């Protein structure tokens, strides 16, 4: 069972290196295996939005003996430990990034551009949904779909 997503007000300690992440993993009861180390390195090297399949390709480019299923298990475990989060950016597969780099997403339905925005942009929405409906919004989990500035100008 996965850990529930971090609430927007929850913070993850700042992580500047792979070792910082692995120290956080160990502090939260996880293991720092070689496959996990490689996966975390890939997340640092590619700070954008990569799917599990893309992450697996990158891991296997460095270490071909790491099975795709190992990458999926590691992503699940790192998410459960609160070190990695995933987001749904429209019609494609979920993408992953380090939880310390938490942000919201705006995705253009016309050109596909993804704009990263601070989660604080959603503070008013979070407060209103909580007070009116008793519902907690996780602004980093899904994208708001719309049209970017360039597509609106066309």
Q: Could you describe the largest sheet, including whether it forms a barrel?
A: 3 strands, antiparallel
Mean pLDDT reading:
88
Q: Using the alpha-carbon principal axes, give the shape.
A: globular
CATH topology of the largest domain: Arc Repressor Mutant, subunit A
State the end-to-end CA separation: 46 Å
Oligomer: single chain
Highest CATH level, the class of the largest domain: Mainly Alpha
Order of helices and strands: HHEHHEEEEHEH
The neighbouring-strand order within the major sheet is 1-3-2
Strand percentage: 5-15%
- The count of helical stretches stands at 6
Q: Any idea what the CATH superfamily of the largest domain is called?
A: Winged helix-like DNA-binding domain superfamily/Winged helix DNA-binding domain
Uncertain spans, ≥5 residues at pLDDT below 50?
1-9
When the domains are counted, the total is: 2
| Secondary structure tally: strands | 6
Helix content: 40-55%
| Structural class estimated from helices and strands | alpha+beta
Per CATH, the architecture of the largest domain is: Orthogonal Bundle
């Amino acid at each position: 069972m996965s850990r529930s997503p971090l609430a927007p007000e929850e913070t993850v300690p700042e992580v500047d290196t792979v070792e910082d992440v692995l120290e956080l993993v160990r502090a939260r009861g996880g293991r720092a295996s070689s496959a996990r180390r490689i996966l975390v390195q890939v997340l640092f090297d590619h700070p954008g939005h990569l799917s599990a399949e893309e992450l697996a390709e990158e891991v296997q480019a460095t270490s071909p003996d790491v099975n795709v299923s190992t990458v999926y298990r590691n992503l699940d475990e790192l998410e459960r430990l609160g070190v990695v989060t995933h987001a749904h950016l429209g019609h494609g597969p979920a993408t992953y990034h380090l939880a310390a780099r938490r942000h919201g997403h705006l995705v253009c339905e016309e050109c596909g551009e993804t704009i990263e925005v601070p989660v604080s942009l959603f503070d008013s929405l979070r407060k209103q949904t909580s007070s009116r409906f008793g519902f907690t919004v996780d602004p980093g989990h899904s994208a708001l779909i719309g049209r970017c500035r360039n597509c609106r100008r066309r």
